[in-house]
Q: What sequence folds into this?
């Protein structure tokens, strides 16, 4: 007979990094992982279009509570662009918007156009995208022939480099903020060059703290050969604070933790969020500092409130 403790011991919590192939949707990969791991609580930290490949980080079990933090990191892509015409979807799956135009772009002109895209700016998302407008996804509205104003979103393009350039074909390496549409970058580049352009291939090589180095293939996944990044290794950018066993009940019940409840020192300088670890080094919660003093208390007088609890 399987006991509650047995089920808890066998349950997997962490992040599964999959090297998504072209074809299936991100949700298709989530469904496959749910069947293999026998776990319904699985979600991803950033979707990939069906034709795109590469890093798809799946939060499993308790890690789903951390999804919004895991999705915050920079993204890196290898992008293939064809100049000469734009499409309705800004990628190879759409209809051409006009006849192909001749492409006679110099490397200097290309470099100048790319440099103009680097930095923080407002990006208009593709008409065919998963972004919600009025409670509906844009691609649903576009397929029905409905035209809606597309509100620009603030994105950051940290770097864009040319890997190869021959005629109308272009290979780029892109490093950008979450929420950036690489399809829209291809569109905007084509507009800047006066040739039109669209995305023909996309491979995500990094998503936040996850890369292809720890990814498994879908064949590995289907065979049950999965490797989860454990909770304790997630969000290393956040400082860690140790808790004695006696403080875990305080965390479970949402109590504020003062200096006396910590096994280690409060992090200095002041931070916006910390990881709370138990004596064995397991991640038990995320917490935000609460200033207990007046006029800017010293760290020794600060308190912590666990707002994301991973304990059962």
A:
């Amino acid at each position: 007979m399987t006991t509650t403790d047995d089920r808890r011991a066998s349950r997997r919590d962490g992040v599964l990094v999959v090297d998504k192939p072209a074809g299936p949707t991100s949700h298709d990969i989530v469904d496959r992982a749910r069947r293999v791991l026998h776990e319904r609580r699985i979600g991803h930290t950033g979707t990939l279009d069906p034709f795109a490949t590469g890093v798809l980080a799946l939060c499993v079990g308790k890690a789903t509570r951390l999804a919004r933090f895991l999705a915050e990191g920079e993204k890196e892509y290898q992008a293939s662009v064809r100049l000469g015409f734009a499409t309705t979807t800004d990628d190879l799956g759409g209809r051409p918007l006009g006849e192909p135009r001749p492409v006679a772009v110099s490397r200097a002109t290309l470099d100048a156009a790319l440099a103009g895209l680097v930095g923080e700016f407002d990006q208009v998302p593709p008409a065919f995208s998963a972004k919600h407008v009025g409670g509906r996804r844009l691609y649903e509205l576009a397929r029905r022939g409905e035209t809606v104003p597309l509100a620009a979103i603030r994105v950051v393009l940290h770097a864009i480099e040319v890997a190869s350039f021959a005629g109308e074909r272009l290979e780029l390496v892109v490093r950008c903020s979450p929420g950036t549409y690489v399809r829209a970058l291809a569109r905007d580049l084509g507009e800047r060059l006066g040739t039109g352009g669209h995305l023909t291939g996309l491979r995500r090589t990094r998503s936040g703290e996850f890369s292809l180095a720890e990814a498994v293939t879908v064949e590995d996944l289907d065979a049950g050969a999965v490797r989860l990044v454990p909770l304790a290794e997630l969000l290393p950018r956040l400082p860690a604070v140790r808790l004695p066993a006696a403080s875990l009940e305080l965390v479970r019940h949402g109590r504020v933790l003062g200096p006396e409840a910590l096994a280690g020192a409060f992090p200095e300088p002041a931070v916006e969020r910390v990881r709370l670890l138990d004596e064995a080094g397991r991640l038990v919660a995320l917490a935000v500092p609460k200033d207990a003093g007046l006029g800017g208390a010293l760290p020794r007088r600060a308190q912590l409130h666990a707002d994301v609890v991973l304990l059962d």
